[in-house]
Amino acid sequence: MSVLEMRNIHKSFGSLEVLKGIDLTVEKGQVVGIIGPSGGGKSTLLRCATTLEMIDKGDIKISGQTLVTTSNSGLTQYADRKTLQQIRGRFGLVFQNFNLFPHFSVRRNITESLVVVHKKSRDEANEICDNLLRKLGMLEKADAYPCSLSGGQQQRVSIARALALNPDILFFDEPTSALDPELTSGVLKVIRELAKEHMTMVIVTHEMAFARDVADHIVFMDGGVIVEQGSEVISNPRQERTREFLAGY
Amino acid sequence: MSSLNSTLVQLAGGLRFTLGIFFLTLLFSIPLGLLVARGRMSKSRIIAGIVRVYISIMRGTPLMLQLLLVYFGPYYVFGFKLSDLDVGPFKYRFVATIIGFSLNYAAYFAEIFRGGIQSMPEGQYEAAQILGFTRMQTFFRIILPQVVKRVLPSITNEVITLVKDTSLAQVLAVTEMFTMAKNLASAQVSVIPFIVAGVFYYVMNGIIEIVMNRAEKSMNYYS
Q1: What is the ipTM of this complex?
Q2: What would the 3-class secondary structure string for B186-199 be?
Q3: Cβ within 8 Å, pair B132-A145
Q4: Is residue A21 a contact partner of residue A70, using CB atoms and an 8 Å limit?
Q5: Residue B1 has pLDDT above 60, yes or no
């Protein structure tokens, strides 16, 4: 079953058309890597899939639920608030700059949504939190505050926060771009582990070697369109534009 | 010496009203300020415009004049008998003082809150949205606690000013501490009552500084 279906996605900011008809399908257990030059629309595509941006035209389905659809007459309509809330519970997003809540401890960052939004008991939420932190090697930091953690640790906490809601699909928006190379490896390791467990993931990244290793489907985007996609885009690109881009790495 | 004692006792009597104005104004103006800040940032141009004018008038005209308008307005504009407007044991002159102060301070607090709210990074809202928090939950659990930390020093400023501004209630003949001091000074032909009153105000603000410093420190666990 497809976890994510995006069809003919169009998105403009003012007169600038950023997405010019994108089609992307992600199957359960698939790891999709999105690569391409800055300004090519990668992050915007991710933000559209995660409701942070509203699309102008197209269809998006997540876990079989319709997030937005454009009718034949051209009317684009989003799901009602309640359905949107349900759909948001089905996916997670890891931001480039973490966006942890600085006034909450690591534990509270992870458990707050479980308790407040998903009505789990504190004990249950704490158990989920402890299991995740143990897995990510962060258990001893449970009571620390984000400002006392390194960037790599903060990013692992934000991954734990996203995983806590047991999402069907996890989106990563350049998860290591704000980290120095030394800290990057720890975060990439965590994502590799998740891939081994067949977590469905969509990862926007500039780490080509990582994308080639971890993703079983690569999407190369430039100028608001998907130039090419497949399992061997990085090792064996067919398009001239892709070769040109990859030559820079 | 006995005159100093009686001065102290009488000023302490006036202190009741000073403290009453102080605490009641904070009680009403802070939530109202939050509401006004939200209105000022409203997407509706009409609401944002009205709130903008409100803030502009409150900050642009003397508080003393606003107090007089709140007090005499009901009589001159609507023909109410002012004694009919008493609220329980409180005379309308006191009620009008609280209304005037609250409306005025809400405008200042609103601008402070607005600055704090607008300084919050967009990412905090986005993370909260992805995690499924409603807009209300996001505001009260994620945004507001961080805003409070950011605006506390500016709030302290306003609170200290409020202590001194309570003396303006004399224009409505509320017998707060400053009115008392003035009356005593002219009765005793002495500046001692003014000095004592000054010490009272200064001590109050000293306490406020200590309390607010502690509050700031209590939020130092994160940056």
Answers
A1: 0.92
A2: HHHCCCHHHHHHHH
A3: no
A4: no
A5: no
